[in-house]
Structures are given as structure tokens and as C-alpha cells.
Design goal:
The complex is a heterodimer of chains A (282) and B (975).
Chain A lengths: L12 E5 L5 H4 L10 H18 L3 E5 L15 E4 L2 E4 L10 H11 L3 E4 L12 E3 L3 E6 L5 H10 L4 E6 L10 E5 L2 E5 L2 H13 L4 E6 L8 E5 L3 E6 L6 H8 L4 E5 L17 E3 L6
Parallel strand pairs in A: 1-2, 4-5, 7-8, 10-11, 13-14
Antiparallel strand pairs in A: 1-15, 3-4, 6-7, 9-10, 12-13
Chain B lengths: L3 E2 H7 L3 H14 L2 H5 L2 H13 L5 H25 L10 E7 L5 E7 L4 H12 L7 E6 L5 E3 L6 H4 L6 E6 L12 H17 L6 H16 L23 H12 L6 H12 L8 E6 L5 E7 L2 E6 L2 E7 L3 E7 L2 E6 L9 E6 L3 H19 L24 H8 L15 H9 L5 H22 L2 H18 L1 H8 L7 H17 L17 H17 L9 H31 L8 E3 L30 H18 L10 H11 L2 H21 L4 H27 L1 H8 L1 H16 L17 H16 L2 H33 L3 E11 L7 H32 L5 E9 L13 E11 L3 E12 L2 E14 L5 H15 L3 E13 L2 H5 L1
Parallel strand pairs in B: 2-6
Antiparallel strand pairs in B: 1-3, 2-3, 4-5, 4-6, 7-8, 8-9, 9-10, 11-12, 12-13, 15-19, 15-20, 16-20, 17-18, 18-19
The chains are: A alpha/beta (282), B alpha+beta (975).
């Protein structure tokens, strides 16, 4: 029987992209730090490996593009929900080119492609939190109202609420979904503030899981056949306190993912993949 | 008999005049038409088949003709009627009601018939019992859709033009599976299909496909490649822009539904439709304070603010203290957060006055329907301030209760174009419809249970929330308490809780009529439809609006509240979890109610008083009223307090109350702590906002205190005093005096008077000025005295009453409880009031002391007969939030209602005042409970509070005075 909005976290495919050498020097970052390219590549490999081997997803790996130093962060280039993919218009000028390859890949997956052509619109996928019942779009340096409007138009079934992102790069720099109806949120004041706004705007009820570190609040939740609740989250090495919090989740299959290098260029766990549920196609 | 269905009206035409006359004759004497017509529905099924099938063009034409005939006819009849006019005053009007299936239902009604009459006729015609979700709309001069007010005459609503109406869903049930009857769901489906096709309910391609496929299944039955032409779907409408591709996808899905009954298909349709974000959202065009075009969406959970397609804010009903309109402005006043002292009022500009009023009404109705247990009484006539409009129908809670009583067999009804389905069915030798229906019903139930069991978490969550809300209505405070434990059962676990509930409901599917989510389909179909286009327009054409980060600012104050509320709440909660969970990690499994209620969860919520300012009348209210009123009311109170001799009928109530009792103790502690805090802060005097927070939070909890404590109090008067402050003790003493004075005679009378700020209204009007002046520390004392004084008075009346009661009835015990519920809107003006409030606690004590002697004397003289022991305990929530100006306020309305049962007399005094633009509603309830000595007073009190909360879920109890008078046996009397 067809049902809408069922199966939050069900994914069959993932789109990822390689790390260009240019990432080390040229990728955008909010704090000046040295990135160890080799380590970053290793991290990415491990990440892809988990998706492919451990979780059994069909992984589409796009080649890195040296002219697009941030291209590994594919999440920003597209928002996929159900069988519709919105190709974004990233807020950073230097990243606009990233959407091309993404569009091609998603087309190949037979998704309905909606493009954001309005030149006044910007939207990074990192600002889009889909809870399973609705969207929250962070209005940040990278995403504006117009971008959010277009997203709302692309996914008409869902309420789309805007949330100002006052600190941090993206909305998902301090939150993400940790399960159906479970929002993982950082404990910083801006994060908590944003959460309150989300609460107020929502008709739905969520639980929240607060972690001490904002960045640790970015994790990847999946609900996979034969695996159940799966959570990719930060390692204890990176965020010991937050990792402890995740370890308390008894119902989840927990997979710590090292992200030490990518985080230096503001890359969180969700940034590195676009997850797709092909079976959602009706 | 004067009613004609469209189908046979033609045939009847020749008789038209005759019939009309007959009708007139009848109607002239009385509204006998009403009585005469119920026969109609039975005929209906026979007529229907002929009328059905609007989708075929031929039909349409026929209807068209009919319409022409109709108009023609009505003009002739008018002519022929005119000579009679002088004799028979009743005029008959022909009404045409467009039903959800697109057919017109034509009937004649008296011109002065009320909206309800028409509505009932239509529901009869439709064989619809769960009708509270529906309503009738008409177009006004501006072609805007308005809801017909059932309590008003039709002719006053239809000023011009033909009497054309439409039958629509008015309140969209949030959970259609809880509707009792399939036929109700069917009509809801029809409405939603229209919503979808018209674009009022936007959805994605995938959703169009799914909804379309269920529509096909319910209308056409199983897919049958032999019987159905390849383009069989093209006659059905699924989407505003229907494409071949869509039809193909629909067909693909349709093929997979073999064997699904129409009722099941509709259930699936609704299960999907209800999740759409615009389901049941009634949109109104408006502009915000900066002139930016927005849309206001009224729905079951509150008010949604959209810009373009984006939701930019949301105000859950509990967050809204007041809604009002003035000229073309619409205002909502928002409850301040725990850490905020100021309420904020947000204004929106509507296109015109009518639009503002329409929006206001829709809000009042939705709020009442979805949030209240029973409708608010309309303001009394003689107070001409503000609109008298109130929602007069049943609330969701009431309609659910009512429909759980529906016991008829599933009615036969024909799905408009589903004849094919039936035919093919019957060819197969399928069971007769009735049996079929019943089968379907079971299926539906099973299916539902499955769904739930499978754990669509979100859905279940919603369900639970609803359930919670209902519970919350029983006792808001309970919820707060409940929430603390809940954290333990975090997200994943939570399913369990939910799972349990829905199934239970499913089992007895009669019981649950659905939750309604409000939504108006249509209040403004016309508005909405254009609205969508506007959205589109705006989407493509408004680049300048993009940098909307300033949206947030507007929102922010509100949000801050919420935020602050919640953090506070969270923290409290956190503490406990942490302890339990072993040190270290910060897992906060805090249940954040992201629901509508979430924000308010900390307080007594749900108060959205729909006090209106109708136009300008509002502010120039009546100062006098206040003064006059209050005394009057007191008199009334005393008069009415006349006791009912009461057997122990209260037992039942009591038992109910017992459950609530648990956890009270904990609360109690809280309260005590807090009052301590307050005490300290009081001494600090000025700006104590923090105290407020506590207070606020206490408000809900405090209500409960009495339950646990009363017993204690009763036993030791001083104990009671402890609870709040030393001052209380004084009062108690005085009370004791009284007791001593009273004459012999054994009587055990206990009073529980939960007293609330009944005085407040008075106080405000009378003494506010002084307060203002004195605002300083002295002012406080002054006030206190004032209060005291009043207190005394009221006390007196009570006691005398008690005595009277006792003597007359010779009842053994008396419990008087006065519950005052103050709507949170009262939390008005700032710092100044705060102090007063706090002092109020003190008041009773002091005032009682000095003045009581006199009173006592009086009382004693009058009724020396009985020797009683009187105890008075006062609990107050010092929850007033202050906003600054201590302006006296204008009395908007005051009313006193008395109701009696065998053992209790309840006097309710409702006062609405406006202070500095803030309206405040206070309800004081005095409940006199008379009964045997062995009445459990605690429970009686608990029950009283509970009831008060149920009746006014939106208000908070701010003060509870328990006055217990006991007849003393000689021996006892001696001490």
C-alpha cells in the first residue's frame, strides 16, 4: 500500500564525491587550520566504505574536481526527499559548479530533478534539516529566504519553516536527526535557541538528544532493513563527552566515524553524502 | 414537504405554488416545517440515485436547467405570494446548497429560519450524524466565503443575492480514523479531494498519485482491465494540473488495490491527506506590521504565519492569550515566556474590516472547537461591548463523546460516481451493501491497528499528543508532572506508550470520533484559491523580499519566551535524569514538547480567551460596572450559596479525583520552596521578575496543592497558614475566633472555598489608583488592607451562608470551594502588580484579622444557632506578571452563573476587564459542598479544582481558598 512520508531513514543509495588535492589549501573554512590531505582522504575512504560495505548502500562515487575544492561536501549541492531532488544554488560562489555533477548523478537515478535557477536564491543542503515530517531551513550566510521558498515549492507536502542561523556555518552544523522524531542538538546557546524556534514552528512532537559539542550533533541516521536504526556519529577521540552520549543509545547500531580532518574545513558527517531512497519512488 | 431535492423538483414544479402556500400556512403557526420534514431523509435514498452522477455532462446540463427553473420559479412564487403577505407573515425562501459531491440540494425555508435549521436539513439529507465537523458557507458581497452562523437568522446573514450556500468541512479532524462513521469520512474525503484539485491543499506529484489512486479505488472499485477503458481515469480529477503521466501512475497504483473496499480506500486517502502540511489550514491574506504580504493560517493547533510558502511563525493556541480585531486589524496577544515579563501583541493588517472579522471568528471557532471542553458562553446581552459572537456548536471533545453514542448500523450511502463499483460488485455476487459496510468497518479497524503497531512513529506521536491534550484538559497540572517522568522514556521507547493508546481506541471504534484538526476547507475558498496563485506569483516575482532574516526578529520575542520557558523546564528536568542516569553524560532525554502545547507546558495553558474588541467600542468601557458589579455579584453569591442539603453524592467525583492526588506531595514541596523564594524576593521589593517565573510555574502546580494539603490544613489551622506565609496564620486565627463565637449545636461543616481573585476585579477598579500613587512599598500595605477588607466581606457572606445552610438543612457538613481561574491574560502590567499579587497572599490574613471580629459579631447575632468550626485556607498563585502600568482597567463584562446539584452549589462569577489594552478574564467559582461528616474534603476539593480546570482549560487557577466549617459536637466545642 502506498503511503507517504513513511520510512524515515530508509535509504538505498548514496552519492559521494572524492577529495580533490585543492581541498587542503583552497577549501573554504571558518578558521585557519592546516588540513592533512592524506588523512582527509583516508577519512573519506573509510566513510564510503562504511556506507557501501557495512551498510550495504549503493554508492555512487563522483570523481573529485580540482577546480572545486569543496566538492567532497556533496550534501550542499542537492536536497533529496522521496523521489524529488532539488539541485541547489550554493551560497558560496566558488561552489556553484558542484551541482553539475550532482545533477547528472541524480538524473541517472531517475529522480525528478528540480533546479534552483533563480539568481536571487541561495541554498546549501547543509541548511536543510528534514525531520521526516517537515523541513527546517536555516537562514544562514549560505542560504536565503528565496532559496527556502524554492525548496518549499519543490516539496509541497511538507511544511517548510525557516530558522535563523546566527552562528556556525549551517543549520546542520549543530543539529541533525538521530532517529524518527529525534533531533540531536548541540548545547551551545545558538543551537538551543534554534531548537526552540524549531519547536515553536512545528506541529509535531520531537524528542531531542543534547550533546555537549555542537559539531558532534551532526550525525547520520538511517533505518536499514536488517540493520534497524543506524547512527553514524562522532568518535570518542574527537568529542569524548558527546560520544558518550551517543553510546547510550541502546536501540541504535552505532558507528563512530572519524572526521578530524574534514571538520577543519567545516565538513561534518552529513556533508559528505546525499542519501536516497529509490524505493520511495511510486 | 416544501423541501425539494434537485432531482424531482422539476416534476413538482406545477405544484409549486400550492405547496408554497401550504408551507406558509403551516409555518405561520409555528416552525412545523421542521417537524414535518424529517420524513425526507428516508425518501432520500430513493431519490439519490437519480440525482447522483454529476460527473456526466448530461447531468450537469440538467442541473443547469433546474437552476434556471428554480430562479424563475422563485420569482413567480414571490409574485403569487405577495398578496398573501399581509395575512401570513412567513416568507419562504428557496435555498440552494451545493454539496460536497457537487450536487445541489434545494430546499425552502422560512425567511427567518436560523442557520442551524438549514444546516440540520442538509445533514439530514446527507444522513450525516457526525456533523459538527461541517458547516455551511455563503458568499458575501465581496464573494468571500463566510461560515453561516447557526444561531443567526439566515436573512441577517444573506443580505443580498440569491440564497446559495455550500456545505463544507469546517473543522478538519486531525485524525480522521477516529471518526465514528464511514459516511463521515466519505464526506471528508470529498472535501479534501476538492481541496486538492482546487490547489488549496498543495501536494507533490507523488502525493497526487497516491491520493488519486485511493480515490479511484473508492469511486471505481477494483481495477479491471476488461471493464475499464484505458483512459478510465480521465473523468476523475486528482490534481489542479492533471497530466497523462499522473493518470498513468495513478493507474499503476490502482491496480495494486484489488479487493480494497471503498471505506478502506478512503481511510488510506485520509491517512495520507492528513499528513500534508496544509491539511485543514484555513488561509487568510494579510500583511504584517511592516506591510509584507503574508498568509495567516488557522488550524486545529493554532495560528500559522506564512510568507510565500514558508512558515515563518506559529502560535499554538495555548500561546495565544487573546485574539481581537479592530477595523481591518487583527491582533493576537502572546503569552510571555517564563523569563519574560511582557506579553506581546502582534498585529496584522487584513484587506478590510470584514476580512478581519472573518478571521477573528474563524479563530474563535477553531480555538473553541479544538481546545475547549465546552463552548464559552456568549457575553451577556446588556453588555454591548465587543462582538457577541462565540462558537456555539459542540467542541471536538463534545462531538466525540456524542458520536461514541452512535449506534445505528452503518448507513447505506452511495459514493457519487461509484455506481460502477457497486455494479461490478453485485455481478460478482458481492454481499449486500449493509453487510459490506460492516465488514469494511472491521477491516478498517484492523488496518488501523496494524498501522499503529507498525509504528509510524510520527503518526502515533500525534495521536498521543492528542490524547495528552485531552488528559491535559482534565488537569493541566498533571501534564507537567507527567512530563518529568516521561523523559526517562525517550524517543525510541516512546512508541510504546503510544502504541498502547491508539489500539485501545481502535478496539472500540465507536468511542473515538476523530480528532479534529480544524481546518477549514474553505472558509475562504475564494481567498485561498487565489492565494495559491499568489504564492506562485510571489515566488516568481518577489526577489526583493529574499533577505528575510529580519523575519526572525519579529518572531523573536515570542521565541525567546518559548526558549526561555523551555530551557528552564529542561533544566529542571535534566537534573532528575542526570541523577538517575549516573553522572557524566549530558543526555537529556527531555521531552520537549515540540507540539503546540510544548511551549506552554510549564504553565497552565491553553488559555486563549476570545475576548473581542469589536471595533472601537472596546476601550471606552464601563468603569462603573466594576464597582456595581462586584458588590452585586457578592450578593448574588451569597444568595445563591444557599445550601443544598446534600447527600453524599460527591463520592463519585471524589473517586475520580483520587487519581490526581498522586504526585501532589511532590508538587507541594515545590510550591513551598517557591513560596519561600517568593517571600525572600518580596523583601527585595522592586523588580522581582524571577519570582514571577516561579510563580508562573507554580500556577499550575499550585492548583494541586490543596488536594494533598487540605487534610493537613483542616486538622491544624496553622498548618494551612504555613503553606503560604506567616500572614495567613493571622487570618486563620480570626477564623478561629469566629468559630468560637458560634453557637452550639453539632454540625460538621466544612468549607472549601477556593478563592480566587475574585477580588481582583474590584480591586483593580476601586483601588488601583491608590496603588498607583503608592506604588512604593507603602502601597503594598494599603492594598493589602483593601484586599483584606473584601476578603472579609466575602468571608462573611460565606459564613453566614454556611450557617444558614446548616440550620435550614441540618446538614452535617458543608464544603464551600471557590475556585478562581484567572486567565493568563491577566498577567498583565509589570512590576507593580507583582507586588500586589504577592501580597494578596498576605491579604487574607491581615484583613481577616481586624475586620473579622465585626463580621463575626454580626454573623453571630443573626444566626447564633449553630456552633461551627471554621477554617479557611488560602492558596494563591502569585502568577501575575506585571507589565508596568497599573491602570485600573475597564470592566468589559461580568456575569454570574449558578448551578446546583444535590450536594454542591456552584456559583461562577466571570469578570472581564481591560487594563491598558490587556484584557483579563477572571472567573471566580464558589462551590458549596454540603455533606456528611465523613466527606473526604480533600477529594472534594481536588474534584472541584479539576472540574474548574476542565471547564476552563485555558485558565490558570490563581487562588484557592478553602473554608471549612464544621459543626462541633458539644464536647469538641468546648476546646
Amino acid at each position: 500500500m502506498a503511503g507517504l512520508m513513511a520510512g524515515f531513514g530508509h535509504y538505498t543509495h548514496a552519492v559521494v564525491r572524492g577529495i580533490p588535492a585543492s581541498l587542503a589549501k583552497e577549501a573554504l573554512r571558518s578558521s585557519q587550520t592546516e588540513v592533512d590531505l592524506a588523512k582527509a582522504v583516508k577519512e573519506q575512504e573509510a566513510y564510503v566504505e562504511v556506507l557501501r560495505t557495512r551498510l550495504g548502500l549503493e554508492v555512487v562515487e563522483l570523481p573529485a574536481d580540482e577546480s572545486l575544492p569543496d566538492c567532497v561536501f556533496v550534501e550542499d549541492a542537492a536536497v533529496v526527499c522521496g523521489d524529488t531532488a532539488l539541485i541547489t544554488r550554493p551560497g558560496a560562489e566558488s561552489r556553484r559548479g558542484e551541482t553539475e555533477a550532482m545533477k547528472g548523478a541524480l538524473k541517472d537515478l531517475n529522480l525528478n530533478i528540480v533546479e534552483m535557477t533563480d539568481e536571487n536564491a541561495t541554498l546549501d543542503g547543509g541548511d536543510v534539516l528534514f525531520t521526516g515530517r517537515e523541513f527546517f531551513v536555516g537562514l544562514s550566510k549560505r542560504t536565503n529566504q528565496r532559496g527556502a521558498e524554492i525548496l518549499a515549492d519543490a516539496f509541497k507536502d511538507y511544511a517548510v519553516s525557516t530558522v535563523p542561523v546566527l552562528e556556525g556555518l549551517h543549520l546542520k552544523s549543530f543539529c541533525s536527526m538521530g532517529g524518527p522524531g529525534l533531533i540531536v542538538i548541540g548545547s551551545s546557546e545558538p543551537a538551543q535557541k534554534a531548537l526552540k524556534i524549531m519547536q515553536q514552528m512545528s506541529d509535531h512532537r520531537y524528542d531531542k538528544l543534547t550533546v555537549p559539542d555542537d559539531l558532534a550533533a551532526n550525525c547520520i541516521y538511517m533505518n536499514l532493513p536488517s540493520k534497524g536504526h543506524v547512527l553514524l556519529h562522532c568518535t570518542a577521540e574527537e568529542f569524548p563527552e558527546s560520544a558518550k552520549v551517543f553510546e547510550k543509545l541502546k536501540d541504535h547500531m552505532l558507528i563512530p566515524m572519524s572526521n578530524l580532518e574534514k571538520v577543519k574545513v567545516d565538513g561534518a558527517l552529513t556533508c559528505c553524502s546525499v542519501l536516497i531512497n529509490k524505493k520511495a519512488n511510486i | 414537504m416544501t423541501t425539494e431535492s434537485g432531482a424531482d423538483s422539476e416534476a413538482k414544479q406545477p405544484q409549486e405554488n400550492k405547496e408554497t402556500e401550504k408551507g406558509k400556512a403551516k409555518a405561520a403557526s409555528q416552525p412545523s416545517q421542521v417537524a414535518a420534514e424529517p420524513a425526507l431523509p428516508q425518501n432520500q435514498p430513493e431519490q439519490l440515485p437519480a440525482a447522483v452522477g454529476h460527473s456526466t455532462p448530461a447531468r450537469k446540463e440538467q442541473e443547469q436547467q433546474e437552476e434556471d427553473l428554480v430562479s424563475h420559479r422563485s420569482s413567480t412564487s414571490r409574485l403569487s405570494r405577495s398578496p398573501l403577505r399581509g395575512v401570513k407573515k412567513v416568507k419562504i425562501m428557496q435555498c440552494k446548497v451545493t454539496l460536497l459531491d457537487g450536487l445541489d440540494f434545494t430546499l425552502n425555508v422560512e425567511k427567518r429560519a436560523k442557520g442551524q435549521f438549514l444546516f440540520d436539513k442538509v445533514c439530514d439529507h446527507l444522513n450525516l450524524l457526525e456533523k459538527d465537523y461541517f458547516g455551511i458557507t455563503y458568499r458575501d458581497v465581496e464573494n468571500q466565503k463566510n461560515w453561516l452562523d447557526p444561531s443567526k437568522e439566515l436573512k441577517k446573514q444573506i443580505r443580498t443575492g440569491p440564497w446559495n450556500f455550500a456545505f463544507n468541512v469546517k473543522f478538519y479532524p486531525p485524525d480522521p480514523s477516529q471518526l465514528t462513521e464511514d459516511i463521515t469520512r466519505y464526506y471528508l474525503c470529498l472535501q479534501l479531494r476538492d481541496d486538492v484539485v482546487s490547489g488549496r491543499l498543495p501536494c507533490s506529484f507523488a502525493t497526487h498519485t497516491v491520493l488519486g489512486s485511493y480515490t479511484a479505488q473508492s469511486e471505481l472499485g477494483d481495477y479491471d482491465s476488461e471493464e475499464l477503458a484505458s483512459d478510465y481515469l480521465s473523468e476523475l480529477r486528482f490534481a489542479p494540473n492533471q497530466t497523462k503521466e499522473l493518470e498513468e501512475k495513478v493507474m499503476e497504483l490502482h491496480k495494486t488495490y484489488k479487493g480494497m473496499s471503498p471505506a478502506d480506500a478512503e481511510m488510506h486517502f485520509l491517512e495520507n491527506a492528513k499528513k500534508l502540511s496544509m491539511y485543514g489550514v484555513d488561509l487568510h491574506h494579510a500583511k504584517d506590521s511592516e506591510g509584507v504580504e503574508i498568509m495567516l493560517g488557522v488550524c486545529a493547533s493554532g495560528l500559522l504565519i506564512y510568507r510565500d510558502r514558508l512558515r515563518i511563525n506559529r502560535f499554538a493556541w495555548p500561546k495565544i492569550l487573546k485574539i481581537s480585531y479592530k477595523r481591518n486589524n487583527f491582533y493576537i496577544k502572546i503569552r510571555p515566556g517564563e523569563f519574560e515579563q511582557f506579553e506581546s501583541t502582534i498585529g496584522f493588517k487584513l484587506p478590510n474590516h470584514r476580512a478581519a472579522k472573518r478571521l477573528w471568528k474563524v479563530c474563535v471557532e477553531h480555538h473553541t472547537f479544538f481546545r475547549l471542553v465546552s463552548p464559552e458562553a456568549p457575553p451577556k446581552k446588556f453588555l454591548t461591548l465587543g462582538s457577541k459572537f462565540r462558537y456555539s456548536g459542540r467542541t471536538q471533545a463534545q462531538t466525540r463523546r456524542a458520536s461514541s453514542q452512535i449506534i445505528r448500523p452503518a448507513p447505506f450511502f452511495e459514493r457519487t460516481s461509484s455506481k460502477r463499483y457497486n455494479m461490478s460488485r453485485s455481478l460478482d455476487g458481492a454481499p449486500i451493501m449493509e453487510n459490506h459496510e460492516t465488514l469494511m468497518k472491521d477491516n478498517a479497524a484492523d488496518g488501523e491497528a496494524k498501522v499503529i503497531a507498525k509504528g509510524d512513529i510520527i503518526t502515533t506521536v500525534t495521536t498521543e499528543k492528542k490524547a495528552e491534550e485531552e488528559k491535559a484538559e482534565e488537569g493541566d497540572a498533571k501534564k507537567d508532572t507527567a512530563e518529568t517522568p516521561e523523559p526517562a522514556a525517550t524517543s525510541p521507547l516512546r512508541q510504546d506508550t503510544k502504541d498502547t493508546e491508539p489500539p485501545a481506541e481502535v478496539v472500540k471504534h465507536q468511542t473515538n470520533i476523530s480528532e479534529l484538526k480544524r481546518s477549514f476547507l474553505e472558509t475562504d475558498g475564494s481567498i485561498t484559491t487565489p492565494g495559491l496563485t499568489e504564492w506562485e506569483k510571489r515566488l516568481s516575482s518577489s526577489p526583493m523580499r529574499s533577505p528575510r532574516s529580519d523575519e526572525a526578529p519579529m518572531i523573536e520575542p515570542l521565541e525567546l519566551d518559548t526558549k526561555e520557558d523551555e530551557p528552564a523546564a529542561d533544566e529542571t528536568k535534566e537534573v532528575e535524569p542526570k541523577i538517575t542516569e549516573a553522572a557524566g553524560y549530558l543526555v537529556k532525554y527531555v521531552v520537549d514538547s515540540m507540539t503546540a502545547d510544548g511551549p506552554t507546558s510549564s504553565g497552565p495553558h491553553g488559555i486563549s480567551l476570545s475576548t473581542t474588541m469589536d471595533d472601537d467600542v472596546f476601550m471606552d468601557g464601563t468603569l462603573r460596572e466594576v464597582e456595581e458589579k462586584t458588590p452585586e455579584s457578592q450578593d448574588e453569591v451569597s444568595e445563591r450559596l444557599v445550601v443544598k442539603v446534600s447527600p453524599g453524592a460527591m463520592r463519585q467525583e471524589v473517586s475520580q479525583a483520587i487519581s490526581d492526588k498522586k504526585g501532589t506531595l511532590i508538587i507541594l514541596k515545590d510550591a513551598e520552596d517557591k513560596s519561600d523564594t517568593e517571600g525572600k524576593e518580596k523583601s527585595a521589593v522592586p523588580g522581582e521578575f524571577k519570582a514571577d517565573e516561579h510563580v508562573m510555574r507554580m500556577a499550575s502546580k499550585e492548583e494541586e496543592i490543596p488536594r494533598a494539603d487540605t487534610s493537613v490544613v483542616t486538622e491544624a489551622q496553622t498548618t494551612a497558614a504555613k503553606m503560604l506565609s506567616p500572614k495567613v496564620e493571622i487570618k486563620t486565627d480570626s477564623m478561629t475566633q469566629i468559630k468560637g463565637i458560634d453557637s452550639p449545636k453539632k454540625a460538621m461543616a466544612s468549607w472549601i472555598s477556593e478563592e480566587v481573585k475574585m477580588e481582583t476585579p474590584e480591586f483593580i477598579s476601586v483601588s488601583t489608583k491608590e496603588v498607583k500613587d503608592m506604588k512604593t512599598s507603602d502601597g503594598l500595605q494599603e492594598r493589602a488592607e483593601i484586599f483584606t477588607f473584601k476578603e472579609v466581606q466575602s468571608e462573611q457572606s460565606k459564613s453566614s451562608l454556611t450557617q444558614i445552610t446548616v440550620s435550614e438543612s441540618s446538614t452535617t457538613s458543608l464544603v464551600v470551594s471557590t475556585l478562581e481561574c484567572v486567565s493568563s491574560s491577566q498577567k498583565a502590567p509589570a512590576g507593580q502588580e507583582e507586588k500586589p499579587v504577592i501580597e494578596m497572599e498576605a491579604l487574607p490574613a491581615k484583613s481577616a484579622g481586624p475586620s473579622s471580629p465585626d463580621i463575626t459579631a454580626v454573623a453571630t447575632k443573626d444566626m447564633p444557632v449553630i456552633h461551627t468550626e471554621t477554617k479557611t485556607i488560602t492558596y494563591e498563585a502569585a502568577e501575575v506578571e506585571t507589565n508596568g502600568d497599573a491602570d485600573p482597567g475597564v470592566l468589559l463584562s461580568a456575569q454570574t452563573i449558578t448551578s446546583e446539584t444535590t450536594s454542591t452549589t456552584t456559583t461562577t462569577h466571570i469578570t472581564k476587564t481591560v487594563k491598558g489594552g490587556i484584557s483579563e478574564t477572571r472567573i471566580e467559582k464558589r462551590i458549596v459542598i454540603t455533606g456528611d461528616a465523613d466527606i473526604d474534603h480533600d477529594e472534594a476539593l481536588a474534584q472541584a479544582i479539576k472540574e474548574a480546570k476542565e471547564q476552563h482549560p485555558d485558565m490558570s487557577v490563581t487562588k484557592v481558598v478553602v473554608h471549612k466549617e464544621t459543626e462541633i459536637t458539644p464536647e469538641e466545642g468546648e476546646d
